[in-house]
Amino acid sequence: MKDLIISFLLVYIQIQRKIIIYLVMLLTSKNIAPKKDNPISKKYQKLEIDPRPIIDIPEKLDYKKLITEYEKQNGKPLKPIRRHKNSKCSVPDNIICPKCNAPHDYLYDNNGGKGQFFCKICNHTFFEKTNFSKSPVYKCPFCKKTLVKIKQRNDFNIWTGQNKLNQF
After folding, report:
1. How far is the C-alpha of 35 from the C-alpha of 29, rounded, in Å?
2. What per-residue string of b and e applies to 120-152 under the rule 16 or more CB within 10 Å gives b?
3. CB 79 within 8 A of CB 106
4. Does the N-terminal or the C-terminal CB of the chain have fewer CB atoms within 10 Å?
5. For residue 68, pLDDT beyond 50
6. CB-CB contact of 115 with 141 (8 Å)
7. For residues 32 and 25, what is the distance between their CA atoms, to the nearest angstrom?
8. Same domain, 33 and 77
9. Is residue 166 pLDDT above 60, yes or no?
10. What is the pTM of this model?
11. In 3D, which of 123, 125, 121, 124 has the Cα closest to residue 70?
């Protein structure tokens, strides 16, 4: 949420800057817009700022709506999972799907009691401690791959892409 507000304010500041430059040009009839500084050679350029990353907000679904959509498409209701009586692997009653909030009746134990679950409704695989309401995912504006934070400082963070072609 904080990132969305910051990006909105940055765009708003840029719009205000353009308006101020236009108004000063009208009053003084002089062009005060800063000239773009084009370096002669990129190897001598010390700092180059990449375009802003693509912000991908995880989608939150509702299992009741998904069940009704399934029933409309297939003409039959989506039945809960039937578990064997003597099954070693069972899904605890307190676990729900973090993506669609489906109850444990619609969840499979996906890997034999090792903590991975699969939701029958939204086809989401997750672990018991998965927190789906996490911050937005940042993606590279060039290759559209997920960015990973490699350093965190008080004033800034350093992110890198997972694309092997662009590694230093």
Report:
1. 17
2. bbbebebeeeeeeeeeeebbbeeeeebbeeeee
3. no
4. C
5. yes
6. no
7. 7
8. no
9. no
10. 0.50
11. 121
The two tokens of residue 70 are: 């399934």
Both tokens of residue 29?
């009839």
- Residues 109 and 123 both lie in one domain: yes
Q: What is the pLDDT of residue 168?
A: 45
Give per-residue pLDDT as tens, 96-110. 888 888 888 888 887
If asked whether residues 69 and 113 sit together in one domain, one would say: yes
Beta bridge partners of 126: 117
Q: Output the CA–CA distances (angstroms, integers) from residue 33 to 9, 17, 58, in the order listed.
A: 21, 10, 40
* Residue 123 Ramachandran class (φ > 0 left, ψ -120 to 50 alpha, else beta): left
Domains contained in the chain, number:
2
Provide the residue range defining the domain that includes 100.
63-127
Residue 15 has pLDDT above 90, yes or no: yes
- Examine the domain organization and report whether 74 and 40 are in the same domain: no
DSSP assignment of 26-78 equals HHH-S--PPPP---S-GGG----PPPPPEEEPPP---HHHHHHHHHHHHSSPP
